[in-house]
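step 4 of 6: structure.
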Amino acid sequence: MMRGSSRSKSTQNLDRTVCMTNCPTLIVTVGLPARGKTYISKKLTRYLNWIGVPTREFNVGQYRRECVKIYKSFEFFRPDNEEGLKIRQQCASAALNDVRQYLADEGGQVAVFDATNTTRERRQTITAFAEQNGFKVFFVESVCEDPVVIAENIVQVKLGSPDYMNCNTEEAMEDFKKRIECYENSYETLDEVWDRHLSYIKIIDVGRRYLVNQVQDHIQSRIVYYLMNIHITPRSIYLCRHGESDLNVKGCIGGDSGLSPRGREFAKYLGKFIESQDISDLKVWTSQMKRTIQTAEAVSVPYEQWKALNEIDAGVCEEMMYEEIQQHYPLEFALRDQDKYRYRYPKGESYEDLVQRLEPVIMELERQENVLVICHQAVMRCLLAYFLDKTAEELPYLKCPLHTVLKLTPVAYGCKVESIFLNVDAVNTHRDRPEVGISTKTHRNVVAPVINIIRNISLTNDGAALVSHFLPVFFYTLFPDLGDACTLLFFANDLMQMM
Amino acid sequence: MYLTQLSCVVVPPSLLKCVYTNDEGLWIRASADCNQAGFRVEVEPQARRFTMHSHQALQVPVSPLQTSRRSSVPQLTNSPTLIVMVGLPARGKTYISKKLTRYLNWIGFPTKVFNLGQYRRDAVQTYKNFEFFRQDNKEAMQIRKACASNALKDICIYFSKENGQVAVFDATNTTRERRVSIVSFAKEKGYKVFFVESICDDPDIIAQNITEVKVSSPDYVNCDKEEALADFLKRIECYKQTYVPLDDEKDRNLSYIKIFDVGSRYLVNRVQDHIQSRIVYYLMNIHVTPRSIYLTRHGESELNLLGRIGGDSGLSPRGHKYAASLGSFLKGQNIKDLKVWTSHMKRTIQTAEHLGVPYEQWKALNEIDAGVCEELTYEEIQEKHPEEFALRDQDKYRYRYPKGESYEDLVHRLEPVIMELERQENVLVVCHQAVMRCLLAYLLDKTSDELPYLKCPLHTVLRLTPVAYGCKMENIFLNVEAVNTHRERPVNVDVTRDPAEALKTIPDHF
């Protein structure tokens, strides 16, 4: 987030800005099998990418599976299995090669080398490799002796691994335990004295204790902070938007309006839904805008307000309809469609800014257990992108409809998503990515939300009168020069069919 | 609807009994149990006159209730936290205590240090020598124990009566016995405990600590340097015999951080909650390497000349001249490895351009967003938004411009900047008036009342150098004239005031 060098649209000479991190960083996991190394690697990678640090993980097990097509048994990992050792060394080298390519040639900034790396010798090789290439090294060691935790890990992620596709649960469990034993004898943990010049964090017993040594720079400091805030206690995160607001109904973006009647109904249903879920110790968070607060009021649980959860600031376009934006700021409108993630509204914000603003919320979400976050469309997209590991390109187009609760439950290496529509109709505020092009194509998509408004209104009201009210609006947007009544009728028919 | 007094009461709508208006104004009646976690609140059984912006009562149909004094970030803490320092003398405990307290107060957690040495100095008026600290000095032991009790009693009062949220108990606390008694005290009262232990055996660092802060302490006011040093080293010996550091096994259920060798290594055990996590993060980012922080505003801008606030204009000719002088000044200072930071606004970037060194842009350093008042002069604000103008004068720290920000919001926005400033060494920050006030308040430990009125004139560089327990500040005016943009708090802050009274303190402009 010190990425002040964001590619914004103002008059800045981007070449002059300097990155905080000069050399790329190589994160090296250390630990016996089933200690959560891959879990940590994937989570950390997801977090770093989300905050804008290009990161990739390199899982040596994956390289091994590609090399040795079929896994037979734990014997492969025996310390006296010379052939096995050779292959494993080759795989590690191949992975490091790819690391070098990613960091040096492909613009990567952090690489996570996910393997056991349990011997000092192996770690020395990696350190030498990093020094040669000008990478900083940071070790992340996971130490755990709790048999319950280890068994749970094995059940959650190992049994379903490609290695054990053709085994039953007991066989797999047995084999894996023997695999761990193969590593145990030669395991040299990071040592306070011997390794005092290395930079590392040792995570003990799934986060009960941490030993942090020689943090070199900003990114390592952020990594340490993140790792110290995550936990694996089962819990669920509920994300939803505020109920439909008056401005939603009008088709306007931004602003700070209250809930529409349907929005209020949704809030009631939300309260009932939450009660029915019987969630222990639920925390409820809202933004500081009326519509989320009014929604939370119906849930009758104390809620906390975060300014950081406020909707994206649309600057000069606040409270405008898309047609008005097209009319008053056609260039801006097109620029936004070209790069919706980085585009910053004049005097407003970009999705990229939003992500920076939301980072403390994510950090606190990681610390917490059961949480319901009542927020806004753009904000929810950012949060969702973090949990579901979506790229910056996908993020601004994630579907976050009104009156729908997303229940996210961490499972294995990812997140299970359940989408629960609470059966109260609302307008659709989603605008798809337009096809690449200009003028007419852009126009077509201006129409989309209006059509949906019509559709929704005509469902609940006497359609005809309202449709005739709305048609002229987008009619003028599309064809400002035409005034032919016949054309209008013809066009209206088309639209009816489209709806 | 006019205010008679400022109150920081924020009433959760669920506890709102009723809202009504009469000839006298807007009345809000709230129930007695407003004291919930996360709300800064007073118990108020009867109806009470509130200011327009001390509310969360959105059911209130009165529309001017826009400006909110809500904090940007929820407090996220329930029980008070007792931070307990552990370590031999001259290990940096007081340095850490003061710095941590300054940081926590700045980000909005009311925190106070309780230094046992101070209590001892108050009890035993004159310090003779190290013999006071000998293990077998029974009389002294009694006194020291009594001091500890008094300190804990004061902590109790701070939490229960003075709205404190964090107390830092700054003492050696080197025996298990002492720590056990503190833990039971805290448990009884419902406080969370977090230990911060500083371990260091590097004789150079210890000698330097003693020279920087011990030799000049009130204890050694009548001694010369060598005497003081010798005595203090003997004092340390007295503690060494009974020192029992926090133990991996025996203390595995306590929450603590152990800092080794001024931060080369940390051991963190059982972080319980949000504030402890923030404390750990902060402690892991501070260092004691000598360095200087240079704070300056952008050069005078076109809008400055016109007396307009906010906006994104470029530099005036004098502003450019300042930027050039700034470049020469920095070259003259011969600063090693200087990092330069600016905001995303034209005027700071143009200023940095003159320096001829790479610079980093932070959106977080952008000036406070004045919302509907952007690019207006103070006279225009008085004309168009007289009520808002007065409300701002009443509580400049918490007042949020409609569709804009408050100083309080700024502080939260700037927290990552402060964290990175702590990590860095020599840094020049080119920013804006409100932003610079916030940063300065953090570095100089100013309260939220003082913060919005700190003087940060244009074309002046502030050089801050950490020294002992605080910061030495040098004020360097680079001899290029500029308009004054500082507005003092006017005498009359009432909403009904005369425009002339509101405009009394505005600075001159073209």
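step 5 of 6: annotate
 - Residues 137 and 158 of chain B are 31 Å apart (CA to CA).
 - The two ends of chain B are 36 Å apart (CA to CA).
step 6 of 6: archive
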